[in-house]
Amino acid sequence: MENVIECVNLTHSYGNKLIYRDLNFSVQKGKIFGILGKNGMGKTTTINILMGFLRPTSGNCYVLGEESHNLSPLTRARIGLLFEGHVCYEFMTVAQIERFYSRFFSNWRRDLYFGLIDRLGVSYDHKISNMSCGQRSQVALGLIMAQDPELMILDDYSMGLDAGYRMLFIDYLIDYVRENNKTVFMTSHIIQDLEQIIDDAIIMGRQKILLQMPISEFLATFHQYHFDVEGRLPDLTIDDTVANWENIKNHYTVYSFKGEKEVKQYLENRGISFADFHEISMNLEHAFIGLTGKY
Amino acid sequence: MIKAIFFKEWLKIRWVVFGAVLLALGFLTYIGLNLRQYFKMNDPINVWIYFIQRKVLYYSILKFIPAFIAVILAIAQFTPEMVKKRYRLTFHLPYSETKSILLMSGIGLLIVLLVAVILLVGLAIIGSNYFPAEVTYSSLITVLPWLLASITVYLATSAIVLDPSWKYRILYALFFIPFIQSLFLEHGYLEYQYSLTAYFLVSLLFGVVILFPGYRLRKGSVK
């Protein structure tokens, strides 16, 4: 399948601060791809690199077949970009901003934009600077949808949105993307919202990718086990079996891609006596925290 | 696309343009009324001695007005692009970033020129009412360095506002200020008459500087 985004051996640092090293990932056409990570793990850095606003320290990124730091205007027209915080020209009104953007895109679909705006119940001469963050997010989404891009890059769409607007955003996005077979590359700090929308994801840890796989596979293969340790409290190590672990007193939680039997065997092999061993099901947010840790 | 960029720039600067035209007309009116007052209250020969022999420029109040307007204009035009890094919106448009910057600053320069034309025409009308053609002509040549300075001030302010780095902002200021200062050193009429062409050519060269922060923003100086 055709790759819409491809990053090869991507390394970036700000001065001496290494953000990540040798990042490799690709996004297939028609997929909704999420990049998940805690604050400061390099999500926005990656988007800035993809859009050519930042030149990586080393490595290459290709977007729609072109080098990301040298995207031609024609390729930019095929990419809808939502900036963190729903940045838009706030000195314009709802109608003015549509008039402005419509001149740049040949397949402009004003019906999609005004359809979304009409749902908000704001007048077309409403100035964007006077709108709430939620309303602004709909304006920004409406503009990207009207642009009819092949690839949508959404940088933390959920920032500043309450639950209602987040749902509204996601509902419109899912409907639009599925109906029009778009590719989406998105980040969000609200992991639970992404569960229902993304196909594939990478989870970024400190300076590296912790995991890249379809979300359904991640949720099916990643487990959370609880047990109580009897006797001396052991320090576990992160390895092939233990992806992460934590304890409060003698109550232990182990996160693992291995099955219950293998984990039990693993503990027994290390002489750890335990009781009340059981698995607890996880949603994406729990699994994400399980893999990346709470701190 | 060009129309759309004109539209966006107009939305940002329309009130500044309106204010600049009013300011220019207001100062011209003041100069006209002031001159009328001089001629009413004094003998023409005394007025002549005062303005011509003693080289008192009856329009000196205009000296820094075009430059002031240029500063406000550049701030009004480029600050909204820098707040929340909105320049990324402009640079993501399917339009060459170099052309975008040139077009945006070209629109600003058009307004600076509009103000210059208003002042020149106004001064020509006022001067021709009271003085012989030679004096009116000399007044127009004498204000040209101030108008030229307003172009350079516009370019300098734009570059300073557009660049995200304070280091470069200071560099631009150090680069532009001596040249701008040198355009305000007159002590009488027509003193720049023979050097204006050279000043004009140097101003055009300064125009290239405006591309530099744009290039830095687009090609990866963003943090």
Give structural notes.
The complex is a heterodimer of chains A (295) and B (223). With 295 residues, chain A is of the alpha/beta class. Chain A folds into 2 domains: 3-212, P-loop containing nucleotide triphosphate hydrolases (Rossmann fold, 3-Layer(aba) Sandwich), CATH 3.40.50.300; 222-292. Chain A is 32% helix and 30% strand. Chain A has 10 helices and 14 strands. Chain A has helices spanning 43-50, 73-76, 94-102, 110-120, 133-147, 163-180, 191-194, 215-221, 260-269, 284-292; strands at residues 3-14, 17-28, 32-37, 58-63, 66-67, 79-82, 151-154, 183-187, 200-205, 208-214, 223-229, 244-248, 251-256, 274-280. In chain A, a hairpin with a 2-residue loop joins β1 (3-14) and β2. In chain A, α3 runs parallel beside α5 (133-147). Chain B is mostly helical and 223 residues long. Chain B has one domain (2-218). In chain B, α1 packs parallel to α5, α3 (65-82) packs parallel to α6 and α6 (133-162) runs antiparallel to α7 (166-182). Chain B is elongated. Classes of the chains: A alpha/beta (295), B mainly alpha (223). At the A-B interface, α2 and α3 of A face α1 and α4 of B.
Spatial gap, N to C terminus of chain A: 37 Å
- Given as residue ranges, the uncertain stretches of chain A (5+ residues, pLDDT < 50) are none
Distance, first to last CA of chain B = 29 Å
Query: How does the major sheet of chain B shape up?
Result: none
- What is the number of helices of chain A? 10
- Summarize the amount of helix of chain A as a percent range: 25-40%
Largest sheet of chain A: 6 strands, mixed
A few lines on this structure:
Chain A contains 10 helices and 14 strands. Chain A is α/β, with parallel strands linked by helices and 295 residues long. The model of chain A has no long low-confidence stretch (mean pLDDT 86).
